[in-house]
Amino acid sequence: MEPYRIPRRNGPKIAVIGGGHGLSNMLRGLKEYTENLSAIVTVADDGGGSGALRQDLGMPPPGDIRNCLEALANTEPLMSELMRYRFQEGSLAGQSFGNLFIAALNGISPSFDAAVRRMSEVLAITGRVLPVTTADVQLEAEFENGASVIGESKIFYCKKKEDCRITQVRLLPEHPKPLPEALAALQEADMIVLGPGSLYTSIIPNLLVDGIVEAIEKSKALKIYVCNVMTQEGETEGYTASDHIAAIFKHSSNGLFHLCLANSSPVPKSAAARYAEEGAEMLQYDAARCLALGVELVSRPIATVVDGYVRHHAENLARELILLHAERSVRIAGNRYGAASCQVEETQGGGKI
Question: I want to staple 350 with a disulfide (CB 3.0 to 4.6 A). Which of 62, 162, 247, 264 is the partner?
Fold first, then answer.
């Protein structure tokens, strides 16, 4: 079922929280339904091109921010291609032009968030992209055996070495100040979406910034966690959906959200076998355990396969989120979508990937 279409300028106010490719992919779908988007993005990355710029220039890592800006951009194809271009040789090998563009804007702007706003204007984006904080933060992870490591990029390798679960992550320094606009976006939202993305390195770091959890708790918005489709090597091997939810609640507060959107589309055997080689598998959606945590699990066909990797389908995910908002949100029922969209049936089963 397709959502009742309204002008995008009158669409719901949606605040999304996370990082990585999962967040930017979801934004590509959501911008077709509403212009009132706020992406609140983690800045704890310290690897790759972002990490190099962070170390060399003392700026927050631009990579996740850049991905979201690209997803929401409304520019000529040439500009989009330029933003995605990665240098192939020399000292800039592997570095993205988009990262360098943000770095240059950061150099001529009074603050990193001001640089992101300027970049948003250049790309004529739909909505806005907000770093969750402009503080210089590092991510530390602790493991079941007592080992710990500092640096987001090191967590994967440390977990593989220690071969046990992550028990806690924290930001250093702890309790960084949030970007005021991020708090305002959460307060004004009709729907707040956490994920999809890496549990410990893309979603939870945002919740460790001062005031973010409190703003979510106080909000009257519909709050949804978009669960991953597969477990993640070096982070969540052996996890179920309820394990993800329990970890988020442990780092925030119990009952931060009451709805979890999960995938119902089957994963092809060829793709599953590829993940199995890395110790990853299709996430088990243990609905009863989720319900015991106070979270309803809603399954919809929202996954696809791209180049052998299982990904959330941007359009399908956005459609199902908008339908859930129309169906579940008391604040806007019959106000923006009309009676037709308030009679929404859940998609059963799932289409093939």
Answer: 264
